[in-house]
């Protein structure tokens, strides 16, 4: 590793340590005592400051602003889940005149992303725009807790701890079914197509396992960097941290910090400004540390813009749930402890997600160099799926987690595959 990359990794480590110290410093004497209220964070609009520093404009534009800038009309839709979470979905309107061609496609982002992930590159290389250009009715959803979906009919995400008591289990059981039903109602269609990235694939596997009736509402589901089993992840940091995720969750909850890595927290601003100042070096090294990204396989401009949209917010329970998958070596529901499991599931251990119930057509698109979605774990997943159409490994040894959506060669290797299967199953 060259000295520049080493120094930047030290900076990243320092940022993480500062973040953890900040969150744990107010920990009460008894870590078993949970606060009822959350720690406050400033939510000021820093656009004038960012403009003065010379940020690329797309770094701070929101979804509808980005779409408008690149020549696409969009709509904002509000969807309320069965358990009271108020979510935002964006719709990119196609210019195609034939209504018969406007099949709805739902896009679901990963854990620290938002709907923005699909339109961060320019209009010729962002899959959200490409789908709209090819006459698809594009819906980009936001799961509970991220910057666009921080509302509830009862809880205040800024003050009520209970708001953040969720993981991808709730995403799959409540969030995705709610938007699927909403799209079908608005479009008067019988089925939709689904494209997920990272945790967006996990959400789908949860939904169609726990609520298998939703398989009948899916034309085809295309999964980029699929995540279910996590036994063989290559990320060394996560391997270590996963051993203490439950303890870390107790620390964070006890100090009133159940919301993690949000768009309005200081850590987002730190990463964003360092990415702008150090440009490609800091951006690429940060992504390398998380996913195994190989420098140069995503345009530097795209990375700079992306770090203004990444770290969009999640819960401490979400991270703890992924840590449990790593440690248990199973794709299973959240482990609430013996008493909690009996109360929630009726068994002392959490049940596994039964992916053999997923009857909708499934396409898996994977990368050899993905530190979060390993080929061995994907083989385990594919062996359990009863209606696997293809398990496609991108023929580039350097292909990693975000290359599927932002990669220089995504228009060559991934997007044609997506369009092929959407056309085939529609």
What does this structure look like?
By secondary structure, this protein is α/β, with parallel strands linked by helices. It has helices at residues 3-24, 47-52, 63-69, 127-133, 168-187, 199-210, 236-241, 245-254, 266-278, 280-291, 300-306, 316-328, 337-345, 375-384, 403-406, 410-413, 415-425; strands spanning 74-80, 85-92, 104-108, 137-141, 151-152, 192-197, 218-224, 259-260, 314-315, 362-366, 388-393. It has a single domain (3-18, 37-425), classed as 3-Layer(aba) Sandwich (Rossmann fold). The strands form two sheets. Strands 1, 2, 3, 4, 5, 6, 7, 10 and 11 form a nine-stranded mixed β-sheet that branches. The protein has a two-stranded antiparallel ribbon with strand order 8-9. It is globular and about 55 Å long.
Question: Topology of this structure?
Answer:
Layout: H1 3-24, H2 47-52, H3 63-69, E1 74-80, E2 85-92, E3 104-108, H4 127-133, E4 137-141, E5 151-152, H5 168-187, E6 192-197, H6 199-210, E7 218-224, H7 236-241, H8 245-254, E8 259-260, H9 266-278, H10 280-291, H11 300-306, E9 314-315, H12 316-328, H13 337-345, E10 362-366, H14 375-384, E11 388-393, H15 403-406, H16 410-413, H17 415-425
Parallel strand pairs: 3-4, 3-6, 6-7, 7-10, 10-11
Antiparallel strand pairs: 1-2, 2-4, 2-5, 8-9
Task: State the helix count.
Answer: 17
The figure for the number of domains is 1
* CATH level-3 fold name: Rossmann fold
SSE series = HHHEEEHEEHEHEHHEHHHEHHEHEHHH
Terminal-residue CA separation: 47 Å
What is the helical fraction, as a range of percent? 40-55%
Mean pLDDT: 89
Number of strands: 11
Principal-axes geometry comes out as globular
Described by strand count, sense and barrel closure, the largest sheet is:
9 strands, mixed
SS-based class: alpha/beta
Can you tell me the CATH class?
A: Alpha Beta
Gross CATH architecture: 3-Layer(aba) Sandwich
């Amino acid at each position: 590793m060259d000295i520049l990359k080493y120094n930047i990794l030290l900076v990243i480590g320092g940022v993480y340590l500062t973040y953890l110290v900040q969150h744990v410093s107010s920990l009460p004497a008894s870590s078993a005592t949970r606060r009822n209220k959350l720690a406050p964070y400033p939510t000021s609009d820093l656009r004038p400051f960012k403009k003065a520093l010379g940020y690329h404009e797309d770094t701070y534009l929101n979804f509808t602003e980005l779409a408008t800038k690149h020549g696409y009309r969009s709509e904002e839709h509000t969807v309320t889940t069965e358990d009271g979470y108020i979510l935002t979905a964006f719709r990119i309107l196609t210019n195609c005149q034939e209504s018969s061609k406007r099949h709805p496609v739902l896009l679901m982002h990963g854990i620290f992303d938002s709907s923005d992930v699909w339109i961060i590159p320019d209009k010729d290389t962002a899959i959200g725009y490409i789908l709209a250009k090819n006459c698809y009715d594009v819906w980009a959803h936001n799961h509970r807790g991220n910057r666009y979906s921080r509302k509830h009919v009862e809880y205040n995400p800024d003050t009520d701890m209970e708001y953040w008591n969720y993981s991808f289990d709730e995403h799959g059981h409540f969030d995705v079914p709610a938007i699927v039903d909403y799209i079908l109602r608005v479009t008067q269609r019988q089925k939709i197509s689904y494209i997920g990235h990272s945790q967006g694939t996990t959400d789908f596997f949860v939904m169609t396992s726990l609520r298998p009736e939703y398989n009948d509402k899916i034309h085809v589901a295309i999964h980029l960097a699929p995540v279910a089993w996590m036994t063989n992840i290559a990320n060394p940091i996560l391997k270590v941290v996963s051993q203490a995720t439950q303890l870390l969750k107790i620390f964070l909850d006890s100090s009133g910090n159940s919301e993690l890595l949000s768009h309005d927290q200081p850590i987002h601003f730190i990463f964003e400004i360092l990415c702008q100042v150090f440009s490609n070096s800091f951006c690429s090294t940060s992504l390398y540390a998380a996913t195994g990204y190989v420098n140069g396989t995503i345009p530097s401009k795209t990375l700079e813009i992306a770090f203004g949209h990444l770290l969009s917010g999640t819960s401490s329970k979400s991270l703890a749930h992924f840590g449990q998958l790593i440690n248990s070596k199973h794709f299973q529901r959240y482990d609430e402890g013996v008493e909690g499991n009996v109360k929630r599931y009726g068994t002392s251990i959490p049940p596994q997600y039964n992916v053999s119930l997923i009857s909708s057509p499934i396409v898996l698109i994977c990368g050899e160099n993905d530190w979060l979605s390993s080929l061995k774990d994907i083989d385990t997943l594919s062996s359990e799926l009863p209606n696997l159409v293809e398990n496609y490994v991108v023929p580039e040894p350097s292909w990693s987690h975000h290359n599927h959506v932002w990669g220089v060669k995504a228009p060559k290797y991934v997007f044609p595959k997506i369009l092929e299967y959407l056309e085939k199953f529609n």
